[in-house]
Amino acid sequence: MMKMTNDEYTRGWLREAQRALFDARQAAASERFVAQSQSAQQCVEYCAKSVIACFSAPVWTHFPGGQLREIISQNESGIRDRFEERMLKQLNTLAAEADAAGPWHGRSTYGIVEQGVVQSWPTELCTEEVAQWLLELANRSFTTAGDFINGWFGQNSNEV
Q1: Listed residue (119, 77, 118, 68) closest to 98, CA to CA
Q2: Residues 34, 49: contact at Cβ < 8 Å?
Q3: Tens digit of each residue's pLDDT (9 = 90 or more) over 85-142
Q4: In the CATH hierarchy, which fold is given to the domain comprising 6-153?
Q5: Nearest to 158 by CA among 45, 9, 11, 24
Q6: CA 10 to CA 24: how far, in whole Å?
């Protein structure tokens, strides 16, 4: 197995987030709300994992907010020293939004299933309003993750 630096590993997650965001925007343009919801949720998840990867390996979950909050707490002074208080707020928002978007991984794929029976289908759940909300989270998450990673590693913000 190839050994990677945190910078390389982090940027791998961020590239995946960028692709998911691109896909979500493409789906939005053609009003494919299920696909938009799926890709936007993935983007938010990958953004949280890209920040986590600056410090440790992300846990295998669609709800990385808890791990991100732990990372923020453990590294609060270093983050504050390198950035302003605003970045701590943005990272905490990313953690909360990653958890809020998490359930949409299953909802946009399987719908809501109770006792093995579909109660609501993805096309019923992933409305235009839901898809737009998730896309807003994805856009905000990508900006936060990119700003943090580029500031943390001291590199050009246009590089992913």
Answers
A1: 68
A2: no
A3: 999 999 999 999 999 999 999 999 999 989 888 899 999 999 999 999 999 999 999 9
A4: Four Helix Bundle (Hemerythrin (Met), subunit A) (1.20.120)
A5: 11
A6: 21
